[in-house]
């Protein structure tokens, strides 16, 4: 399935009032998938944004119907936002492009090489970590979902080479010391009391290889790692490597979760 960019009108009413008010430049740039609104403000401050050839120097500048916006000399325009949920398979890189030409999550979805919709993975999963991964071109939503302020919950299923002792579950909740500071699970439990190699952890942090490093700190080797839930999203009936578009209600729930209008 090929995904193509779609120009959309941000001024559907086309009234004298809407033409006068327009849309704030940072929101316009975010809707173009360039970056988040906060980063768009930085682009304005750096003098990299122009409207109809005139440099924008005010954050409150508004774009009106028919005007042309450029960033670093390239025209940008609003794209239809895409929200795709992938059940990430193993041996897949969570990036838009890999210099070593390894398979990426965009390859798994079937995004054309030129990525016309500007899709990117929201956050990262290790190459051999499977499970829930959101792929989108909504920079505002992605920025907030990944920002520590919003403490987005993530649940992982972990299979280890050896049994995890009950006191080690307690230790994971209390916190273990890593090279970049202490890390603790919000919740941790056995998936099956009869099989102590399998545990579930809930985290709201998202440090690099955090779960693998936490388990290594306790002397454990991970055999299998799956993200079972991200914010409100689960893989449901999706098989490994399959993906689907989010329903409008699912997108609304994500927006509400990060206080985004």
TrEMBL record:
Q: Which family does it belong to?
A: Belongs to the pseudouridine synthase RsuA family.
Keyword Transcription: yes or no? Answer: no
Q: Which top EC class applies here?
A: isomerase
GO-annotated biological processes? enzyme-directed rRNA pseudouridine synthesis
Instruction: Provide this UniProt record's keywords sorted from A to Z.
Output: Isomerase, RNA-binding
Which InterPro entries does UniProt cross-reference here? PsdUridine_s_RsuA/RluB/E/F_cat (IPR042092), PsdUridine_synth_cat_dom_sf (IPR020103), PsdUridine_synth_RsuA/RluA (IPR006145), PsdUridine_synth_RsuA/RluB/E/F (IPR000748), PsdUridine_synth_RsuA/RluB_CS (IPR018496), RsuA_PseudoU_synthase (IPR050343), S4_RNA-bd (IPR002942), S4_RNA-bd_sf (IPR036986)
This one is known as Pseudouridine synthase
Q: Which PANTHER family match?
A: PSEUDOURIDINE SYNTHASE FAMILY PROTEIN-RELATED, RNA-BINDING S4 DOMAIN-CONTAINING PROTEIN
A GO term for molecular function? rRNA pseudouridine synthase activity
Taxonomic superkingdom: Bacteria
Q: Which residues form the RNA-binding S4 domain?
A: 23-84
Enzyme Commission designation? 5.4.99.-
Does the entry feature the keyword RNA-binding, yes or no? yes
């Amino acid at each position: 399935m090929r995904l193509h960019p779609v120009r959309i009108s941000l001024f559907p009413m086309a009234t004298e009032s809407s033409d006068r008010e327009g849309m704030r430049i940072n929101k316009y740039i975010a809707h173009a998938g360039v970056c988040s609104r906060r980063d768009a403000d930085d682009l304005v401050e750096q003098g990299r944004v122009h409207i109809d050839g005139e440099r924008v120097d005010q954050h409150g500048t508004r774009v009106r119907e028919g005007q042309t916006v450029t960033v670093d000399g390239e025209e940008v325009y609003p794209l239809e936002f895409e929200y795709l949920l992938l059940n990430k398979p193993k041996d897949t890189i969570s990036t838009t492009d890999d210099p070593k030409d390894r398979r990426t999550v965009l390859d798994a979805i079937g995004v054309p090489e030129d990525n016309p919709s500007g899709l990117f993975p929201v956050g990262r999963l290790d190459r051999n970590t499977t499970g829930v991964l959101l792929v989108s071109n909504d920079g505002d939503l992605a920025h907030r979902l990944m920002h520590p302020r919003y403490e987005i919950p993530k649940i992982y299923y972990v299979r280890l080479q050896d049994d995890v002792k009950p006191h080690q579950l307690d230790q994971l909740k209390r916190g273990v010391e890593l090279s970049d500071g202490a890390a603790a699970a919000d919740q941790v439990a056995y998936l099956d009391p009869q099989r102590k190699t399998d545990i579930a952890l809930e985290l709201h942090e998202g440090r690099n290889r955090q779960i693998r490093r936490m388990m290594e700190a306790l002397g454990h080797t991970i055999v299998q790692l799956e993200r079972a839930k991200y914010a409100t999203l689960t893989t449901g009936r999706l098989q490994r490597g399959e993906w689907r578009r989010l329903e409008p209600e699912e997108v609304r729930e994500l927006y509400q979760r990060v206080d985004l209008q």
